[in-house]
Amino acid sequence: VESMLLELGDESTTLAGWHVGFDKAFCEHFLLRRQKKARWQYRILDVHSLAYPLFLLPNWKGGHSLNAMATFFGLPRDGVHGALQDTTLALSIFKELLKMFPPPVKQKQKK
């Protein structure tokens, strides 16, 4: 895990997750203790923020949790709370959110 976290200092890193602010602070603290600095500045993807418009629907009753969103999309949840399980679930939710957007329309090239 430590070797993976040390790679977070690379500017090509995109940090993603559910309520990713906690993960960002954890990773930055880890790197700072090793005299490294995270360089992802604008490459942070918070899946909770992307899902937020669903929470505003008048018939939304699920709350704002990772479990509520998993239930909404019919994704299995084994009840275990852990970093790997939550990361995998956040990725699955992100993929479901992407399905809600129409595919891009290809523009015809002018001759």
Explain what you see:
The protein has 111 residues and is mainly alpha-helical. The protein has five helices and two strands, in the order αβαβααα. Strands 1-2 form a two-stranded parallel sheet. Helix 4 (66-73) crosses helix 5 (83-99). The radius of gyration is 17 Å and the shape is globular.
Question: On the 0-100 scale, what is the average pLDDT?
Answer: 82
In terms of DSSP E residues, the strand content is: 5-15%
End-to-end distance, in Å? 53 Å
The helix count comes to: 5
Specify Rg, calculated over alpha carbons.
17 Å
Strand order, sheet with most strands: 1-2
Which structural class do you get from the secondary structure elements? mainly alpha
Helix content: 40-55%
Note the overall shape: globular
Weakly predicted, low-confidence segments: none
Mind summarizing the main beta sheet?
Answer: 2 strands, parallel
Q: What is the string of SSEs from the N terminus onward?
A: HEHEHHH
Query: How many strand elements?
Result: 2
What's the arrangement of secondary structure elements?
Layout: H1 2-6, E1 15-17, H2 20-32, E2 44-46, H3 47-55, H4 66-73, H5 83-99
Parallel strand pairs: 1-2
Helix pairs in contact: 4-5
